[in-house]
Structures are given as structure tokens and as C-alpha cells.
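pasting for the record
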Amino acid sequence: MDEMISNLLDTLQIDELHTCDRMSVATLSRPDETGPKYLTMSQGFDQEVLTVEEISDSGSVPELSVINRGELHVLLLDGEEIRGAKQNRVLNTSILVAPGSKCTVPVSCTEQGRWHYTTSRFEDSEVVMAQSLRQRKQASVSKNVREHQSFHSDQGEVWEGVDTLHCLLDISSETGAMRDAYEARQEDLEKYVRAFADIRDVNGIAVFLEGKLAGLDFISYRPAMNDLLPKLIGSYAMDALCEEENGRREPDPGEVQSLLSRIGRCALEVQKSEGVGDDARLDGPDLQGAALIALNTVIHLSAFIKADEKSFKGGMSSFSHRRQFRDSM
């Protein structure tokens, strides 16, 4: 397991640096790209081979049922949101769903004020959770993996993060839905997506916000990365919209190489994935990450610079109202 991640880090190349306003993206590629083909969640829905639904009529907030009726594996990405059924959710970790299989996946609620059916099944929400919220969710999931061998998140912290996002962007949402923030700022987010639309056929991105390195995502299969890239750009761009003007500096691609080196020195804890393969948790002094390793390949690797607790919670000081969820949860 260690060797597989090390080999990946040793072969990753840092390519071009692209910049739009407060956000810069360094592309990553693996010259000897090999490994399995698979569909993304969006492609699985589009091809009508993927079904996601509540695990029962009564439902369970932290779990959903996934069926893959296709002939290829389907990748569900950590932080991807799905909407519908009883409430919108995000994936707690990346999962590869085998062809012709059914599994139960761990999720977090991103719509605190609804617990009733709007549709019988879920559909693609077309967004990935904002990077800062995704980082904090990943941290709580990793803690639960270490202490309880569970992929559950700190649900209260997820709701708090969504509330903070609405507060920082001055967004009102009747059901506390994270997606409402994306819809309200769709024009601004699309500006970033269009600015980075020329990025194609890469294996990963490392993203700077206001010149500071925030994190990176690696996807083993380039066609899958092409499909996921707009969502990932939107995830980081949502944080760019929330950034305060603190004096922008020029992004340094050398920091990406340093991050790759530090990932290789992280402590590693491995647990069987809820889908195919293994889930590896990475922890270092100033960074955290996770990797899905399956079919003899690092399918997905993410790494984030650990959040500054004080700066993250500073935006909450003027936002004391907490939405109370219905008793039926």
C-alpha cells in the first residue's frame, strides 16, 4: 500500500499553472498512465446504470443504497453531492462500486431542514462540497476511522459549515441546502469553470487560493478526471468567493512538489472500503488526505492543507442562529 502511493508520488509531473482572479491551478499528470477504466457518478446516472436511493422507506441520514447495473466500475467521489429523496447528501469518502453490485455508502446531510421525499431516488447535484468544508468533513471521517472503524462524519460540524457558507455569501435557504449557495452564485462559479475549461486530459490539479496552496486531487483515469474537473473547480472556487482580501501573493509551483513530498511522509492507516478496494487515511503535521486504492491502482488521492481553526470559525461569530432539524431525523 505504501509502495503504491509512493510510486504514484514519484511519477507525478507538475505541468502548467493557470490563473483566474483569486484562484490558480497547477495541473498534474502521470506519463505512464495505466489502470482500469471506470465511470464517474454523473456518467453512471446519464447512462442509467447507477441508482442511488434511501436504504429503506424510513431512510437513514448517514447511509444510502447504491446499485451499479453496468459493466464498468463507477467512482463516487468524496464530497460529491446528490439531491432528491428525503434530503440532499454528500459522499463521506471515495468509493468504487463494482459492476452488477449493490452496496451501502456513508454520507452526510447537506440539507438540514428537509426530511421528506421530493423524488423516489437521487440524482446528480452537479456539485462537489466547497473545499474548506470537504477538508473538515474528511478530518472528522478520518478521526472516526481511527477510533471507531467507521466512515461517519461529524454531522453537526457539516451543518455548521453549510450555515457558515450561507452566512459568508449572504445566502438564504429555506431548507438549509448547500446547493442553494451554488445556485445563488452560479454566474460567479461558471466564470471560474470557463476560465479553466482548457484543462483536459490531466490526472490531477493542485489549487492555490489567494496564492496559498489549498490542496490537490488526483484521479487515475483521465476521462474520469475530464468529467469531474468542473465539479472540482467549483469546489475550490466556492472557497475563492468566500476569501477575504488579505494581500494576494504569487503562487509557487514549488509548493506543489513540496506537498507531494510531504504526502509521502504521512502516517498511513488503511481500512477496507465500503466498495471495492481499500481506503487509506493520510496524516501529517500540516496536511491530511485520503486515498482509494483498488484494482492495483490508486484510483483517487486527495490532500488538503490543514485548516486554521481560528480563521475558519471567525466567519461564524456573527452567525449564532442554528437551524433545528425536525424530530423525525
